[in-house]
Q: What sequence folds into this?
């Protein structure tokens, strides 16, 4: 279960969301798209088109099938895929472990969708179809979504309930803006919401469904809008991977010379420690992202060298502030209270 | 015998201690009731195999009673109506009443005829999830209290519980539960990150706080070690004496 904390305007988290789904299309996985604000049709129409040249495409096909056979274990979760994007500027055709590259100036052509099966859940439609559903005092929208996911998992055999189906496949679930007011939850609008447990109960059941089937899920949560921070802590505990996107739009960092090459920071708050005592921590903790015309890249954050002659007091302060942020690690490995890393 | 151990982690993952206690008590021949709320059975099984214990075998011979929270929750919500007579232990998701969970623990650890296991052990991973699922802090504390009465006092067994906490946490309910349990524990294992930040060779620090006596005012014994987690085991060493440094 991958939770993404949305950036302020949702621009970049939406992009990550679409990348996840696009990768699913290219790998031949089934998709389940749920949203309360856009129809899933529209979301799918806007998926980025793949970036391919012929030799690369063949390599990818081989790698994709190799990866699929590894994935066939009883329970499937998503690992942090984007670690494999090149950290430095490198041409996309250099060797990669798995995954595809995308060109976001193009949208995915409809033929690519032909081979996969996709399911959608658009909240306004679903609520009008079925009257109030009672499920452990959970918010009605969440309850309907869970029921829908469970039904698809069961019917399509992702939980192994159809033994005659030889070709096993993976279900990729994407849920947009969970916790926002559009889902009927008021945790974003008030400090003392009516039911603070709805979202966490939903996540718990979702986690159960994911563990029980061959599926992986990405959710985006408008964390900056949630008033009660305790809820976000609980969401973090219930997720396997938690990634936070912080965009520089409208913040003072936009004009900060430290960050001039980037559009935002990527915070990895938690990585999974599954089936093992240890977890796979990358060396680099400081990741930033940028959106170019064709590509969305995530890179190691380089602090530019301090070359100016007149370095004023305030900018030194700024550097210290950002250094403090940069040295905070993620939850699976310990983080410290102070920032003595340089 | 009859000890309550609290595993506490702050901004890091203390679950390696849970794996340790699980394989430790199983190897010692105790009957274990494991309430695993957050991960699947296969996760624990795979790690336990690396540590030299087979959970499936332990389950089969009746030594381990494993409550897989995620699975029970799904059975409760999506399963067919079963007239099994026993309410599901995860019933508190809809009713906020932890009674059924307590009954489950009690029946699994009460020795039956023919049981030759040593003292029973209750292991919980992790308690903070109960708050996320709708239980009030008071209900959680009551549940732990009832468990203590049965497991520690009546059956002379041990309890080990994992909680997450943090000094600047905004989750007041969780902090309330954790603080209360700290006062009632015989042994606290507190796992934290290094104050200096992330390090590849030293994964964190563990503080061992042993209650000398709950009544007297003697000072608790505090020991601090640092640790590094490897694939099959965890190495502990005194502060500053990591193998990477020496």
A:
């Amino acid at each position: 279960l991958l939770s993404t904390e949305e950036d302020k305007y949702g621009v970049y988290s939406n992009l990550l969301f679409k990348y996840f789904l696009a990768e699913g299309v290219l790998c031949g996985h089934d998709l389940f798209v749920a949203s309360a604000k856009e129809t899933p049709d529209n979301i799918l129409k806007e998926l980025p088109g793949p970036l391919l040249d012929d030799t690369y495409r063949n390599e990818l096909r081989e790698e994709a099938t190799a990866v699929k056979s590894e994935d066939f274990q009883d329970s499937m979760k998503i690992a942090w895929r984007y670690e494999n994007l090149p950290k430095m500027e490198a041409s996309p055709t250099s060797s990669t472990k798995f995954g595809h590259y995308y060109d976001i100036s193009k949208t995915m052509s409809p033929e690519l969708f032909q081979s996969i099966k996709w399911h959608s859940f658009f909240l306004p439609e679903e609520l009008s179809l079925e009257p109030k559903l009672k499920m452990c005092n959970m918010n009605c929208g969440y309850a309907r979504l869970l029921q829908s996911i469970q039904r698809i998992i069961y019917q399509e055999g992702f939980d192994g309930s159809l033994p005659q189906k030889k070709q096993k496949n993976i279900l990729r679930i994407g849920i947009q803006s969970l916790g926002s007011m559009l889902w009927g939850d008021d945790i974003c609008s008030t400090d003392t919401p009516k039911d603070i447990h709805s979202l966490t109960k939903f996540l718990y059941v979702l986690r159960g469904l994911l563990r029980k089937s061959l599926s992986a899920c990405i959710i985006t949560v408008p964390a900056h809008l949630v008033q009660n921070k305790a809820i976000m802590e609980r969401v973090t505990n219930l997720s396997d991977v938690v990634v936070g996107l912080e965009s520089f739009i409208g913040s003072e960092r936009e004009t900060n010379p430290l960050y001039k090459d980037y559009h935002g920071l990527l915070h990895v708050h938690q990585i999974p420690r599954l089936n093992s005592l240890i977890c796979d921590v990358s060396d680099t903790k400081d990741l930033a992202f940028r959106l170019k015309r064709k590509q969305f890249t995530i890179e190691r954050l380089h602090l530019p060298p301090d070359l100016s002659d007149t370095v004023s007091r305030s900018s030194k302060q700024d550097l210290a502030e950002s250094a403090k942020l940069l040295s905070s690690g993620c939850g699976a490995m310990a983080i410290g209270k102070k920032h003595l890393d340089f | 015998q009859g000890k309550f151990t609290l595993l506490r982690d702050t901004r890091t993952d203390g679950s390696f201690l849970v794996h340790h206690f699980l394989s430790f008590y199983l190897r010692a021949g105790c009957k274990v009731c494991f309430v695993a709320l957050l991960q699947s059975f296969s996760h624990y099984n795979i790690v336990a195999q690396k540590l030299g214990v087979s959970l499936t075998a332990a389950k089969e011979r009746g030594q381990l009673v494993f409550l897989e929270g995620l699975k029970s929750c799904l059975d409760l919500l999506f399963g067919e109506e079963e007239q099994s007579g026993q309410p599901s232990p995860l019933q508190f998701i809809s009713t906020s009443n932890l009674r059924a969970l307590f009954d489950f623990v009690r029946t699994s650890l009460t020795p039956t005829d023919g049981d030759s296991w040593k003292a029973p052990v209750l292991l919980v991973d992790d308690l903070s999830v109960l708050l996320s699922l709708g239980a009030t802090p008071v209900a959680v504390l009551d549940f732990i209290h009832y468990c203590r009465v049965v497991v520690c006092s009546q059956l002379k067994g041990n309890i080990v519980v994992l909680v997450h906490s943090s000094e600047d946490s905004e989750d007041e309910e969780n902090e309330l539960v954790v603080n209360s349990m700290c006062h009632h524990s015989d042994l606290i294992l507190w796992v934290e990150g290094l104050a200096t930040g992330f390090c590849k060779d030293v994964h964190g620090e563990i503080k061992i706080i042993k209650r000398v006596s709950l009544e007297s005012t003697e000072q608790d014994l505090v020991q601090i070690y640092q640790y590094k987690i490897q694939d099959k085991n965890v190495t502990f060493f005194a502060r500053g004496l990591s193998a990477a440094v020496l």
Summary: Residues 53-97, 308-342 of chain A have pLDDT under 50 and may be disordered. The first strand of chain A starts at residue 2 and ends at 5.
